[in-house]
Structures are given as structure tokens and as C-alpha cells.
Known about the structure:
The complex is a heterodimer. By secondary structure, chain A is an alpha/beta fold.
Amino acid sequence: MSMNTQGRPTAAGDAGSAFRPKTFTGNRALDMEEPLLFEIGRLDVTGVDLDEPEAFEAELGAHARKSGIGLPGLSEPETMRHYVRLSRNNYAIDAGLYPLGSCTMKHNPRLNEKMARVPGFGDIHPLQPLSTVKGAVELISELGDWLMELTGTSAVAMSPKAGAHGEQCGMMAIKAAHIAAGRDPKIVLVPESAHGTNPATAALLGFKVVTIDAKEDGTVDLTSVKKAIADNAGNIAAIMLTNPNTCGLFERDIMEIAAAIHEANAYFYCDGANFNAIVGKARPGDLGIDAMHINLHKTFSTPHGGGGPGSGPVVLSDRLAPFAPLPFVRKSASGLEMVETEAGLKDGEKPFGRMTAFHGQMGMFVRALAYMLSHGSDGLRQASEDAVLNANYVRVGLQDLMTLPFGVRPCMHEVLFDDSFLKDTGVTTLDFAKAMIDEGYHPMTMYFPLVVHGAMLIEPTESESRAALDLFVATLRDLVMSAKRGETERFTGAPYLAPRRRLDETRAARAPILTYQDPVPAMVTPAAAE
Amino acid sequence: MTTYYSKDHEWIAVDGDTATVGITDYAQSQLGDVVYVELPDTGKALKKGDEAAVVESVKAASEVYAPIDGEVVATNAALVDSPANVNEDPEGGAWFVKLKIADKGQLADLMDEASYKAYVETL
């Protein structure tokens, strides 16, 4: 018989040793230091092999470039490794619970991705003849129908590219409606708990922002709204309000606020960032809302936060419907038409203009509709209910140790804590958030909303299982106890275990370096190459 | 010279007809490291409650409101290049604007140092 005598050791060796080698490369096994593209690329390398063009005549004349542009070249495997290594240092919803309040970092279903890659949706161009993209137009129309159905509204502008862009669209429709009625009001009411983009949108469009105080319980004060309307009689253009608000609370007086606003010949803009808490439960149109953007990338699960572009269609009430911007889909007996220009308008259509060159974020439309249709009406309603349930599960798990600024009461899809539980511990909200990074969690939203001190806004979303929430709650409880025991170092120097330690945000803001700075002449410069 | 304080955490040092306005030490400690300051044009007439200046920290952007009616007669341009001064010397060299007081009666609505300290204690 022949026998393999090259036996390799199979025991664990010194695996129990606490020794940690200082590695030659600086890498720590899978945790690798990755230089910038500019540092690893070379001018004489390219990852693509294009045929030399046959005799051609350049039409650039004196504009033709005479020297290289100094971009680093990499082969395909180098490029892949660069991005894959970087991605391993990144946190993502696919890697773990991502409780960033108000951002709705829910799971992005893979079915959405599959649908977005169907060639009839994925490989088309907005300038293609309409007759060749009928399916895509039908998809835009159907998604718009569902958005109107879920919100109880009459028109939809599909083109805005994100939430703030949607706000701008809605407020421009409101402005157009006032102008059409011969009015020119100058004031927009914005509660102090609003998203920062709300006053920014109003200011961008030339309105003056009047801030509305919050009540002790964190909701908008109806009396303050009425007083602001009375103080500025005839000059109110709109109110911009978020419901549920950024404290995670439902605005119970919303219908009275809508009535007061409408009585003043003004319009009600609702920031739809938190629509995910009420889909299938309440229709904003029934609450008196005239315009609302819908963050498809929050409520309807399309990727965001570095994973994909946003998309912010705006639904409009009867009163604003005529002013919806171009382009829009019109339904007629002969089918669907994409109305692209003012020349194509019919009586009663008075678009205020156009927000984008083309039709909106087509890839996100496909994903959002895939999400809606795969969930069905019962599934969408359950997603809202589970989002609220999960936030309350986290609230109940933490409310004895962390502090609720507005007392112990149910929240909607997110729960807001303030920093009073950290008083006298020497640990700040920022330190607490950084220590969560060492525990493998993306921190919650911090220092927002501004209405509470040292805010921590947690939105677990419906994506998380009970086991995941239990571990998250247990981790935060351990951190709170640790802070209260005076283990300050665990916080003030955190994160200790992340690929990068805490950054100097002050210096980054005061002395930003906005372009790539070659640290050493590591690569051949175009001049030297000549 | 008398110094008054507002609930918006501004100090107002009054010398004759001129009020020098800045933010308090409490305000700078709450803002954190200031990274940007925007000042009004001189000559601008401000009503009480109007935005007089903008101060931005790593954490948040905030308005400095005019605590009283008045015309801007001077601004502290050095703050634009050295916003850190706001953290280092908030109640001294890091004043924001000087206003020509329009109505001295409005000063009665402001707090003295003792009442401001008591107010901060309640926060």
C-alpha cells in the first residue's frame, strides 16, 4: 500500500494566545487598508481594450486635448478588489440593523432588483420613441395610480428625484395656484420640529418662514398655528408639516390645522418622509393635505444611503392638480400619452413648469411598484403596523433606562430619546453613538430633531426580527449601564474597533481639503512621462 | 455700560445709543465648535426678532436674532475668517454686530445677568 506521510497538524495550535501580530502590510486579515485609486492607479495601464479607431477626422480643432489627463488606470481585477475591499469597511442595511431615525433604512427586497433588471425596464432610454417603451409608461402610470390611491389624492408628479426636490415641486405648485388666483402671499408656516429641508425649500422659493412652536407633548400647537394665521392675515401661502412628526408622534390636530389653513386661502404641504408609518392606515388626502412627496427610497424600499438615487414623487389634491409639472401621463381612450410639452396641453392643464429633463427615477419606479405589488394591500398595511410595533418594542425595552422627552406614551414608527439619562456621566450623545459602532451597529440619528436636547432618534423599521431587536435593546442597555457605572473611556474614545477612529469634524469643516492632494510623487505625472 | 441678556442666549452691551450683540458662553457651549459665521451688511435696519446673523457649528446652523430694533452700524468681520473665536471668547472679542438702538424702551424686555443665570439654570 502507499501511504500519505505528509500529515498536517490538525489541532488548534496556540489559537488561545492573546498575541496580536503587528502585520507587515498593516492589514488585519479581512480588514484591509485600501489606498485611494490615485495611489494605486498608473497612467500606462487600462482595464479596457479598445480598437484603435481607423482613419478619422477630429472635429475639435484647437480644442483637441494635447496631453493626457492624468487619470489612474487599473485592470479589471484591481478595480474590483478596490471597491470590494472598501465595501467591506462599510456599513449597510445588508450587513446589520440600521436604526437611523427618519431615514427608514428598511430592507431592499431582491425581487425589486430582479424586476429593475428586466430589459424592457432596465435597458431603455428616455429619448426612445414612445411606441417602443409603452410598458415603461404604463408602469409609471400604474405606480402613480397606486400612490394616489394610498394617499387619497387626485394627481401625481413623478419626476422629482428625492424628498427635498419633491418639496420644491409641491411648493412650486402651491405658488402657481396662488398666482393663478391673483394672490401673492409671502409667508410659510413651519413647525420647529420640521425636517431642515422644509424651511430651506420655503426660503429657496422666496417665502418668509414663520416658526410654529411645539407643545409640551412634542406636537404642533394648534393655537400657535391659528395665531400665526391671524397675525399674518391674507399673507399665508402654506404650512409645511410632517406627520407623523420627527418626534415619532402623530399630529392629532392635523384636521383642525388643515381646516384653519384652508380657511386662510392657504395650502397644506405635508412632508411625506414618515409616510411609512401610516400606509394603509390613513390617507393624507382625507386629513386635508394638498401636496405631499413620497420618498420611494424610504416608504417603498428602494435603495438609498449610498446604494441608489432617491425618488420623490409628489401627490396633489384637487385644488393643486391642474398645476402638476410636465411631463405627465394622460389617460385617454386611445391609451396612455406622455405629455412632454406645453404644446400638448389640454384645457384645465396648467403645469407650473418642469422639474427634470426626463421622467424621473425609472429604476426606482420599477422597484417601488415591485414592492407594492409583492406586498399587496394587506402586506403594505402590515409593514406600517410592524414598523410601529418594532419602534414601540424598542421604546418599552429602553424607557426605564433612557429618557423619553415627552413622557411614556406610544410612538409611531420611530422612538425619540433625549440625553438626560446621560447627565453627569461625562458621556455625550455623540460618544454614545460612537460606542454603538464598536458594538457593530450603525448609530441612530443624533442631535435631531432640534426640539429636544441631545436627541437620539431610533427607527428600527419592520425589517427586523424580534431576536434582532432583543439584541439591539440588550446592547443599548449594556451601554447605558456602562455609562452610568462611569466607564467613560468606552465612550469618549470610541470607536476603537472601526477601520477608522473618530474623525475631527471641526477641522474637516473649518479647513476642508476638497480636491485630491498627492501626498508624495508616488505615480508618474503626465509631465514626467513625456 | 450695561449688559442685558435675551432668552435666545444673546448678550447686549449698551453704551449710549449703541448696542453690541453677541452670543453667550452657554450658547457657544451648546452649539459646539463653530465653523461658519455670516454677518449682515452695515446699514441694514433690523426689527426685533429679525435674523441678524447666522452661526453654524458642526452640529447645527442657528440664527442670531436682533434682540431689539436697530440699524446695523458695525459688524465683527474677523469672525468670518476665525469662527473659532466664538467658542474662545463669546462674551468678549467675538461680538457679532453693533446696532444703533431705535427704541430704548425695548431693553426693558431683556434680562440682567442674574436673571439670565437663573434662566439658564432652569434649562
